[in-house]
Structures are given as C-alpha cells and as structure tokens.
Specification:
- By secondary structure, the chain is of the alpha/beta class.
- It is built from 14 helices and 15 strands.
- It is 28% helix and 23% strand.
- The strands form 3 sheets. Strands 3, 4, 5, 6, 7, 14 and 15 form a 7-stranded mixed β-sheet that branches. The protein has a 6-stranded parallel β-sheet with strand order 10-9-8-11-12-13, with helices on both faces. A two-stranded antiparallel ribbon has the order 1-2.
- The longest helix has 13 residues.
- The radius of gyration is 20 Å and the shape is globular.
Amino acid sequence: MKAAVFQGSGSVVWQDVPDPGIKDPGDAIVRVDAVTICGTDLHILKGDVPEVTPGRVLGHEAVGTVVETGQDVRTVRPGDRVLISCISACGRCRFCREGRYGQCRGGGGWILGHLIDGTQAEYVRVPFADLSVHPVPSRVDSVEAVLLADIFPTSYEVGVLNGGVRPADTVVVVGAGPIGLAAVATARFYSPGRIVAVDLAESRLRAARELGADATATADEGPEQLVADLTDGLGADVVMEAVGVPEAFEMCTRMVRPGGRVANIGVHGKPAALHLEDLWIKDVTITTGLVDTFSTPMLLRMMAAGRLPAAELVTHRFALGQMEEAYDVFGRAADTGAVKVVLGGPQHTAVQVPDAAATG
C-alpha cells in the first residue's frame, strides 16, 4: 500500500510501505476512506515533536471501513464504517478508568502517527479498537465525520470545557485555524455573551464570523484594546490559545480578567514566558491538556442531528494519492486560504483546490 511517510527535515513523501496486519487481539485493520492533515502534523515537520522519527507513517484522524478485526474485538466488525479517534484507549489503566484517555498508560494515548504508524495511508492498524473507533451513523458524511477525530473534541474538551465557558461570558479565541474555528463553534453550546476571534489572516476571521464570532481582529488591529473596550477594561472571562506560539500565549494572559480562565489548546515547540509577577495577584486559572475524546460520541450525535457546523471548515478536497500536494496547500494556509483539507471521500476522486479568494 501507499502512505505518507515522515522523512525528517520538513519532508513527507507518499510512498510504498508494507500493508498493516493484526498484531494484538484488540486490533482492527481499517481501509481509509477519508483522512485529513492536522496542525500537529505541521508541528512534526518543524521538529516540534521529536518523538516522531523518520520512517513513521503520519496521521491520526480518519474515517474508514473495517476490513479485519482481532479475536477480542466486540464492538465493530468487517464492513462497518468507523471514525478513527486520534486517541487510543486501553480501557484498563487508571487514567482510562477516569475517562482521561489521552493520558493512557496501557499502551494508548496519542500513538497513531506519533509512536506507531498512522492514518495517512490506504490502510491502518488501530489498536484497542473497541474503545478507539466509533461507528458512524449512515446519515453522517465521511468528509464531515473526519473532523470529529481530533479538532472538534480537542477544541471542545481542551478549550471550551477546560475554559469553563458559561452563559454571558466574553470568550476570546486566539488563532482562527481549524482548532480555533471549532472552538468558536462549540463555545456557542453555552450561550456566551460574545465571542472574539483573533488571527493574522482575514480569510480565517471571515470563517470565524460565519461560525458565530461576534467580533474579530487581526494582530495588527489591537486585539487587546478591542477586548478591553468590549469589557469596560475588565478583560475576557475565558481566553483560548489555539496557535502554539509564545506570543499568542502571552497575549492570552494579558487579555484575561481577574478570576478568569486561560485554556491553552495549541501545541508549543518553544518556551513561553509565564509572567507570574503580573498574574499571581489576579486569581487566573491556566489549563493545558491533550484531548481525551470522551466527548466524541456526543459530538457524533450532534452532527447527526445537524447541530454541529463542520462542512464549513473544509476548504480543500484531494484524492488520497495527492497527499504531498495537500501538505503543501495546508502548510501555506496564509497563501492558499486553507482551513481544513480532506483527502478521499466518495470514490476517493473528489478533487477541488479553490484559490484563496474563494475559500473565505
């Protein structure tokens, strides 16, 4: 089969690799029907995740069809269409029993495309299949469902829930990439008073407004002053960092009100300054986290009911074999207008690469 193989030094190549096979009784082999590229994959290419070594098949998000299962798998069988979660869960360790699957100590956690071969391939081996894949309702499209593998549960759990969004809150989302946009969409579940989105790209801010942001600002438009003006100088109740760079995190800590919450979602490859000399007296709560994906079944139900805007985030479609082109387009989002790219889908043939002016 073919797969996207990390070569090191910012390079990924679509090349021949051995077909995966059952290794453990809880495994499932899944034919990949729709897959996407994550901002974390770009962090891997930049060297921010040194545990990923050259030769690794990348990817941790996909929808596919089960073709084989190990003898212990009980919840899915060959022929089932499933969502592959970005997090694998052994189901037995202390953290899995608490629903904190991202911290699994039984061989799971974030392993696909990280510690074992991932989903950006024609076929993938999924360990702990009973807890790590989810049957997809027939009325849910695969291209939309793939966004529930990572970005929506990540934004909802690590951003919205960790940030404690409540009715009437002023919520600021710094970074309007896929994670930030999903945070805007899921923050609306809790009826905040206003949502402010901050990004460098006007095209992404337009997307944020379409998903429910009440106000937007580029980094050059004084977002800190905007938040101060909207809150009579108090600051935001909840600020979410969805970029993963020191400047964004430090901006978040300046925009939060006394007693407010900063929820860090971004993947950081460099140290960020924590100005405790300013924050210690403000009763500020700062949270971090890796997604646990405990919310995935609920989000699937929301999508099936038509209450989760996901299709709007997909700006570019490719055939599965166009992986290298897709990485290029997604990696140059400022130029291409890419928000989320999806490869595959029906018959693996849909190919649409709009120009930046068309993506919004």
